[in-house]
Amino acid sequence: MDKYKSLFRKIIEITVIFTCSLTPLFWLHGNQIVLGHDSGFRVNSLEYLKSLFYSWDSYHNFGADSSVLKGFLITQLPETIFMTLTKSTAMGQTLTFVFWFLVMSFSMYFSIRKLFPESKFWILRLATTLLYVYNFFILQAWFIVERAKFSAYAALPIVFVITYRALTKKIHPVMAGLYIGITIFFLNGGSLVPYFGGLIITTLITIIILTVIQSINDGLRSIIRTIIFIASSLFFTGFLNAYWLFPQVMDVIKSYNSTVSSLGGVNGVINWEQVVSKNSSVINLLRMQGVPDWYDSLFHPFSQAYLNNPGLIILSFVPIITIVLGASLYLRFRREAQRDQLMLVIFSVLLVGIVFAGGSHEPFGRIYIWFIKNVPGFSIFRSSIYKFGPMVWFSMAFLFGYMVNGLTFSFLKNDFFRRMVGVCAILYILAYHYPFFLGNFFDWNKPFTTRVVVPTYVTEMIDYIRQNVPSNSRILSLPTTDMTSGADGYSWGFWSSYSLVNSNINTTYITDGNPSGALTQSLIKALTDRNPNMFNVISSRLGISYFLWRDDILDTNKCLTANNFAYLKTSLESMPGVHIKKKSELWTLYALIETPRPPVEVISQIQLISDPSIVPIIFNQNNISNENIISADSSLQTTSKENLLSKFADKAAIKGRCILCDYGERHIYEDRAVFPYLNILPGSLFYQLINFKEQLQLRKFSNNPSVLFDIYSSLSFKRVTEINQLLDYGKKKERNRKLIVNNLQEYKKEITNLVDIIQKMSEVEQYKMNMVLSIYLDAQRQVLAESIRKSEFGPDKFIEILDYLNSINRKVAQQMPNIVNQQRYVFNVPDDGEYKIVSNQNIENIIDTATKSMLDSTKPIFFNRGIHILDIYISDSDQTNGITLLDQDSVVLNEYGEKEYSFPYYDDGQSYLLQFNYHIERGNNIVAIITGGTNNSCQSTQIISLEADEKWHKIRKNYTLNDRSQSIKVIFRSYDDSPARITVENLNSIPTNSPISVLLERDFSYLDRLDQPSITVQKIDPTLYSVRLENVSGPYMIKLNELFNNGWRVIPLEDIGEVGKAKDNIQKIITTIRLSTLKSNDQGHFLVDGYANGWLIQNTNAHTLIFMYEPQVMFYIGIMISMLGAGSVLCILVIHRIIKFYKL
């Protein structure tokens, strides 16, 4: 009878959890589907799943690496099955939602049941399970249905219980390791390792605590057991998951450092973490809150209620109060002492989870930052709350359920009241998390939402493209609204960093923010300028044959629409050869060339360049030539492959490096001109110790001029500060006078040392550092000049120093250009010869700084090999100088009044540095508002609170103009009920980006010519091409029209190539792996036309080239190991079952 009662209770519990897991049935209505943002859903999920078998995505922009996404073969399999079976995206998605709800729920339920199978723990099992899936951490993931996060989240309780049972001798450690391998195989987090941060730390905590506890009784045997468990877990996890681990490891080896650098280095990761962790306080985490989206978005659909409603705020403390109360009374309801170690582990997970999930937030922020700085690879766990939050929510859910269950069964003896408490706990969890039942969490920034109804004209156009446009064509998305972010937004609610069209067609679709954005912008410029020659050349070179115009676009700021780009549409329709291929209401498909560019081609004319950024400049010239542009290194001649290539170049172009032309770069150094407040001054007991440390630093870097310059610069600012603070210090004037005189002498020595250090640098660095020194001296002279007024022992010493500084500044000024009227460029000329000067703007004069002679830019100029420094003067019509609105003004503001200053409009997309000095004479609560003048409410605005401390302050802000701005306005506004007065000086704006680019271009058409053999191309799959070359008589250049990536290799074969003869996929995989071991005999891998791959091949016989994307080989090796692992694991499980069944 007890057996049936237990079964009945189990059925009831499972029914409750299953019923709650049907919550997603409330979310989608009618034709609504989840699409956009980072959801990763596709209308055609089956095609996407097939594409995941390859490590290269040919359809995304000019191609993209997808090798690290192999885990999604498992993670996105359920939705593919549901959508294929139901033949409905909406129904398939709903079933997918329910599936993942069930997976997360039952992973926790059965894990807890394994630890607490007794019937008296039913409240624990239900409360823990429901709180684990009904919380705001996981709700934040539901708005984009993060299947990868759900997968890792579901794996956590399973891996925890397996680990716990293995180390407490409930499971053999080898079998436990096997079970963990199987768990990670099915719940692989989409192969996104950072999502396993919480699982990894939780497992480590469990292993450490249990090993220590068990070793007290079992000694060395427990340690051996732990080692076996860890080894078997790593072995089986690696064995079964090799298909995604191998590509991941390869990617980390190749790109970890560059990825961290792209985030701003370690400091950039820390800065980002400080933003994300801003609200991850201990109290918020213990209330199971702290998710960043709640606090940073004014458009959050429900967070304001939880942040401001007193009732909901009180209810947020229920779990932690219950846990604290239960912990304080734990010994009263504890029945089994062996479970004490489980509670110790869970509490430890909670405490460590708070430290890690809190990230850089105080009071434990220093620990997390230390890990980022000192633990290799830890930077992948940035956005701490998302990576380690599962530790907190897992432990809080468990402890809440355990304490409710313990308190209930300890203090209530009546079964009815126990049931009522259990029901109330369940109702609390569901009612407190009521947004789960509303579905409004999809609406993240109206009108943008991830729950959309796709217009029929969109699906009609997508279907047309899939059926009628060749798969090897390229479509350019127009108009472009978010070139920087690459976001794709529409008035009907869709917004995503990944294009709507690209994710649902089988044709290359080029969008905003693509890796060759400079080239597509050159194409847009050709449209803007109505230049058909440039338009046709660039379109052909990029292989773009179609244009998709969308009249329903909406930019991220919800301001720009297609109407803002009507001129672009008119220009497109006027281009020769452009015609409408298909119109579907607000979407129009234009065709230019309906014969796609071949994926692989031989090129015979090349132009060498020293920098990829030159490509758009060359394309934007009106006299566009037919050369393919090959990017070499900065000098064009430092490696053998470039020397070889230069023998066949028709032209070469070298980009000049401008020295501190960018105002933004200058102001980096201006911002470093800081006078620190010092607590220890000359004459102090500890000053000699500080001086000793300074001398140690100087000796340590005595052979490094760049570092020495920084040290002496810092010391010079320190000396000036010491002088100023000693003058302010009224006591012991005579002693201070001597200290000040000594400091002035030390300061003069440091300036002299700075001048000497600059002379030891390269010629190019001398120019730059002289400009930096000039910036520093200007700041220091102002402070020293002010010191004369304070001095009570005569100005002689100060005047002597100022005269010295003026003499230094005069020498420096002679070597510096006047950057308002001219710019100084450095060219590294590879060979003697005549070069033509090319610029994207009109050059008025050129002066060679070495000979002081003027050069004629209209004719080729002879340059010797080596470094050349030229001063470039731009014509007034092209030079955009800064504007000063006022030198000084007294701004009087009435109560809640304001005063406005307006700068005239310059150029869209131009960035300006806006700056002014101010001094508040009277008043409080005053702000400066920097905004773009517009005809509507859409405008970018910066609000700056001004300091009312009677001191002078300097404001410096960058502002970028766009299509919504007609001017820049500065508004001084008072939020006080009394009049205010501000003195404002030097209110001006300066363009912050360098206005010109200058090249030296040389003609090499007299050199040897490249061969042009006949070519036959076979595309086997997106990662593999077989190319047959006939009639080969000499070296030739071959181009693969996919995005440049070092993973592409060329392998030569004498015959047609075994891979092209493969009869099935297994044979193709084996052949590809074997071919990957062959060496390549190409003469270098080059960037062609700013995006494509090129190789110089030296072969004079007919032959075959195999183009192979190397990460695909790692996937093939990994999947074969995983298949072998799956077979081995299956055999082990069968044998284990037989042994257990027959008790062998």
Characterize the structure shown:
This protein has 1144 residues and is an alpha+beta fold. It contains 38 helices and 38 strands. The protein has a ten-stranded mixed sheet with strand order 12-34-37-36-14-13-15-31-18-21. It is globular, with a radius of gyration of 35 Å. Residues 637-641 have low confidence and may be disordered.
- Let me know the average pLDDT: 83
Number of helices, counting only DSSP H or I runs of 4 residues or more: 38
Principal-axis shape: globular
Structural class: alpha+beta
Distance between the termini: 32 Å
Query: How much β-strand is present in the residues?
Result: 15-25%
Number of domains: 6
The largest pleated sheet is described as:
10 strands, mixed
What ranges have pLDDT less than 50 throughout 5 or more consecutive residues?
637-641
Number of strands: 38
Helix content: 40-55%
Side by side, the strands of the main sheet go 12-34-37-36-14-13-15-31-18-21
